């Protein structure tokens, strides 16, 4: 098969990549800013609803990724770079699921209902406030949520290096 330099991720993969990327950046900002912003708008209900949406989209995206082979990288990309990109990408998939799941568990232990943008209730897991599960989920949510920041910086740095300096078509595969 002829894999041209212009071959891209398919439209579904590209759409999901960008929708989820923007939502995650907003989500990290809301998570970190919720104390400071809580007087101006109800940050947490939006954080929870957006996070649940990210979970659903990410599960579908993972299914899509496993059932659709991505285009191969250009042969000019050294093996160590391809391997580190794959490691970061799989870590992203893990976090895209583990971060909202831990958020959902910790929010289940709170007293506020979890709603999807005021339209319907999202069920809560039976998690007791102060239980070991609630504490672990809380800790995990904060640590893994913040882990997104250096990984996103690394990922954007790599994308721009390919797009602006190497100009090898790697960035175009996702545009
Ligand atoms: C990809 C999705 C998500 C990301 C990236 C994310 C990220 C974050 C971050 C960075 C924080 C701040 C942690 C800190 O202050 O140390 C946070 C806090 C929080 N998140 Fe999320 N979150 C996500 C999904 C969710 C979901 C789905 C829920 C609940 C349904 C949720 C509930 C919470 C709650 C209740 C807090 C406040 C914890 C506290 O300050 O005690 N999050 N989130
Ligand atoms: C929260 C932000 C982001 C997350 C979580 C994220 C996640 C991912 C994941 C998981 C992949 C692997 C796709 C696969 O093979 O299944 C990927 C690929 C890619 N991303 Fe992102 N991304 C984010 C933001 C960005 C941004 C801002 C850019 C551009 C500046 C970008 C450019 C790319 C490119 C070019 C690829 C394709 C790499 C390749 O061909 O191997 N991403 N991203």
Explain what the structure shows.
- With 175 residues, the chain is mainly alpha-helical.
- It has a single domain (11-174), classed as Transmembrane di-heme cytochromes, Chain C (Fumarate Reductase Cytochrome B subunit, Up-down Bundle).
- The chain has 4 helices and 2 strands.
- It has helices at residues 11-37, 43-67, 79-108, 132-166, and strands at residues 114-116, 120-122.
- A two-stranded antiparallel sheet has the order 1-2.
- Helix 1 packs antiparallel against helix 2.
- The longest helix is centred in the C-terminal third of the chain and has 35 residues, at 132-166.
- The radius of gyration is 18 Å and the shape is elongated.
- The mean pLDDT is 95.
The CATH architecture can be given as Up-down Bundle
CATH class: Mainly Alpha
Small-molecule components bound: protoporphyrin IX containing FE
Number of domains: 1
Name the descriptors:
single chain, 175 residues, mainly alpha, Fumarate Reductase Cytochrome B subunit, two-stranded antiparallel sheet, 4 helices, 2 strands, 3% strand, binds protoporphyrin IX containing FE
Question: Strands, helices and their partners?
Answer:
Elements: H1 11-37, H2 43-67, H3 79-108, E1 114-116, E2 120-122, H4 132-166
Antiparallel strand pairs: 1-2
Helix pairs in contact: 1-2, 2-3, 3-4
């Amino acid at each position: 098969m002829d894999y041209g330099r212009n071959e891209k991720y398919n439209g579904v993969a590209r759409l999901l990549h960008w929708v989820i990327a923007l939502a995650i950046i907003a989500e990290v900002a809301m998570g970190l800013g919720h104390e400071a912003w809580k007087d101006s708008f109800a940050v947490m209900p939006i954080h929870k609803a957006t996070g649940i949406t990210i979970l659903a989209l990410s599960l579908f995206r993972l299914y899509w990724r496993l059932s659709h082979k991505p285009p191969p990288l250009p042969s000019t990309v050294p093996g160590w770079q391809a391997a580190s990109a794959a490691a970061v990408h799989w870590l992203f998939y893990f976090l895209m699921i583990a971060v909202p799941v831990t958020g959902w568990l910790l929010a289940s232990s709170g007293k506020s209902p979890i709603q999807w943008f005021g339209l319907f209730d999202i069920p809560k897991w039976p998690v007791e406030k102060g239980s070991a599960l609630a504490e672990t989920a809380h800790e995990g949510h904060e640590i893994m949520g913040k882990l997104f920041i250096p990984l996103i910086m690394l990922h954007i740095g790599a994308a721009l290096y390919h797009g602006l300096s190497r100009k090898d078509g790697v960035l175009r595969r996702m545009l």
